[in-house]
Each structure stands twice: as structure tokens, then as C-alpha cells.
Fold this sequence. Notes:
alpha/beta, 11-stranded mixed β-sheet, globular
Amino acid sequence: MSEIAVTGIGLVTPAGIGTAPTWDGVCAGRSTAATDPRLADLPVDIACAVPGFSPAEHVGRRSSLMHDRHVQLAIPAAREAVADAGLDPATWDGARVGVVMGNGSGGYTSASREHERLLGRGASAVSALVIPLIVPNMVAGHLAMEFGATGPNLVTATACASGATAIGVAMRLLQRGDCDAVIAGGTEAPVTPLLVAGFARMGALSRRTADPAAASRPFDAGRDGFVIGEGSGVLVLERAADARARGARIRARLAGYGASADAHHMTAPDPEGTQVRRAVRDALAEAGAEPGDVGHVNAHGTSTPLNDAAEAAVVRDLFGDAPAVTSAKGAVGHTLGAAGAIEAALTVLAIEHATVPPTANHDDPDPKIDIDVVAGAPRPRAIEAAVSHSFGFGGQNAVLVFTGA
Length: 405
């Protein structure tokens, strides 16, 4: 099948607005978690927010009123990715350009606000735009309008694997010849009282609220849950032959994609990891790679006791202690449906820079987790192939394999 190239990257994350500040922030190993006024009076009132994000500045005042926050975060990320790819929407054939975005909760910021208006002031106070503000497909629709992309247009919803699933689906569209370029990624704006209260009631969130910066601790012995985050990650994907023909810079190759379902539990991972292993093996097989070729694993690494232990067991079983493992969630929190896309972008950057970022707050390694977690400082490492894991509620698994350009 056709080789798929990554030609553009765009990021809007708690570590910074843009790819360069995000990469620098993650490599610095700094947590971005802090007390968040949007969560005042909740038992868990900490989050990883995008710093200094002004919808009016980054989207435009009029347009910002028509978009939920998850769309507002996606638009500048997609603009950066398209510009980075060296593509001009004014000159491309929009029918050959697709958009595939992952999202877990849709316009929950707007839904929460409009529900409060309904309860407090009645139906006449509800915005006439409430439906397009909250339905999850609108992020792909708005990006299509932004860029004149009239090819396949869809949103994937596989919980916290959504962003990675979107990239995998985009890969298939290119391989089938349905598109010449795809804007693909994920976005999420889940820092709302109801969602945070719900995750807290499940026991999924860290209760280390007195020390937010130390709360998200992937693979650490003291981990007690994740910190919720917001953000967006977008890649531009093309067939490698097409990218070379137009003289584009190829940042990395998306070489393999594997997907599976645990069919085990609504929220807990299968401790045996059978279907995760299958997804990894399928992705490696498509990439023509062996486990020994993998120098880096960008782990899902949520900082929850069960998920980190189950994922580490899979990594140990498949790869031994060879790959350098990191989780960006120590720095940027868990961005849910955006996480897989943000982490895919960071995986590409790790290959490009020959550097594996550290896992923030990995201070006390769990003796039951026998993998090589990078901590403290970035680790220089030439990477032939890298794997990015994403797992979601419902047992959704998506695995991406990237190789160097």
C-alpha cells in the first residue's frame, strides 16, 4: 500500500499555543496543572488549561461566538498544520482534501452553559445556535469551511483513543485513493464542572489538589489518577509520493495502524492486554517492523493505577526494556479525545529531533512496572520506529507506528 507522509503539525496544548512551545514545554518536563476557576467548589478543582488562549484573537471575534471551545482550539492547530505542510487552500482541489477529527464529548462547554440558561431563565434564553454548538461532528464541518475542503468529512468517537483513531482512518482514506491530503487529529474542551465531577465520582482523577503540579504521575508509584486537560493536535497527511512530487518536507512516515476492542469492561482495561497486543502487532506488521526495531513508545500513560500497570505489562511483554517510554500526560494532563493526536504529533517530533521527552513527575518508579520510563531530562536517541498507544473507555484501542523521513 501507499506510504503515508506527515507533512504538517499543529498543536494547541496546555504546554503552549503552537508546535514549538508545546515541544519545548514537554521536553522541559514541567507540569501545567493548576487550580482552575471553572471548577470552583468541586472536590477536584485542578486542570491543565491552554495558557493565554483568546478565542477572539485566535479564531476571530465573530467566529468565536459561533464555535464551542473544542472547535476554537482546533482551528489554530489546523491552520498551523496546513501552513507547516506548505499547502495553500486557495489553490488546492478541495474535493481531494478530507478532514477527520477525533472528539470524545462534543461541545460540552456550550451544552453546560446553555443548560444553565434554560434552567435559570427559560427556553427563550437558549441560544439559537445551541445545536450546532454542541454536536460533535461540527469540528470537522467548521474545518472544512475554513479550508474549502469538500472531500470526506467525519469525526471519530472512540473516547480517549479518538484522536489516534482519526489519524488511522485518514491513513486509510489516503491508501484507498479517496483523498490526496487529509487534515486529521483530535480536539477536546472537557474542563467543565459536570464532566470533572463525573470523572471524580468514578475515582479516575487525582486527588492531589493541594499540589496540582505534582498530581499527574504516569507510571510513578504515587500515581492516583489523571488530571483533566484541554487542547488540540492536528496532522496533515499525504501519500509520500505526492509529497515528494510537490517538494514538501516529510517530517515522518505514518507506517502502520492497528485497532481493536477489549470487549471487557466499560471503563477498566483488560489486565491481560490481549487485544492491545493484537493492535500493536497489527500496526507493526503493516509497518513492516519488528518489536526490536522500536526505539520509542509514546505511552497512553494516564497516571491511573490500573491503566498504567496494564499498559506497562504489554510494553514489557512485546518490547522488553529496549524502547524509551514516555507519557506526555505528566506535563499536559489527559486531553481525552485530543490525546492520541497530540501524542502522535509528539512522537513525530521525537523521531525528528532524535529526542525522547521526559515523563513529568516520574520521581518514584513503581517497582511493579519494569519498563524504561524516561524521567528528569530529555534523552537523546536516534529512533528508527516509534509506537504511539491510545486507549479509551469501552475498551477502544488505537496504535500508530511512525518511522523516520
